[in-house]
């Protein structure tokens, strides 16, 4: 089952950036709380940053260790 944005309740926005925001969310029908990065795709495309930096994100994510030591 793939989760969608609609599966979460936004509790509080904790940060905003050029391409979106970060919110504290709760999974509906659960007490689990997460941080969700919500990207505004249209804003990203308007600024044409995706073509310049689009291939860096997967590389950086692959380098991360979850959970951190």
From TrEMBL:
Domain Protein kinase intervals: 8-69
GO cellular component: actomyosin; cytoplasm
GO biological process, one term: actomyosin structure organization
Residues given in the record as ATP binding sites: 37
Family matches, as InterPro entries: Kinase-like_dom_sf, Prot_kinase_dom, Protein_kinase_ATP_BS, Rho-assoc_Ser/Thr_Kinase
Molecular function per GO: ATP binding; protein serine/threonine kinase activity
Protein's UniProt name: Protein kinase domain-containing protein
């Amino acid at each position: 089952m793939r989760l969608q944005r609609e599966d979460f309740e936004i509790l509080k926005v904790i940060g905003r950036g050029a391409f979106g925001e970060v919110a504290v969310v709760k999974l509906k029908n659960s007490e689990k709380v997460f941080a969700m990065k919500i990207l505004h795709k249209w804003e990203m495309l308007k600024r044409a940053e995706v073509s310049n930096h689009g291939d860096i994100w997967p590389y950086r994510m692959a380098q991360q260790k979850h959970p951190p030591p």
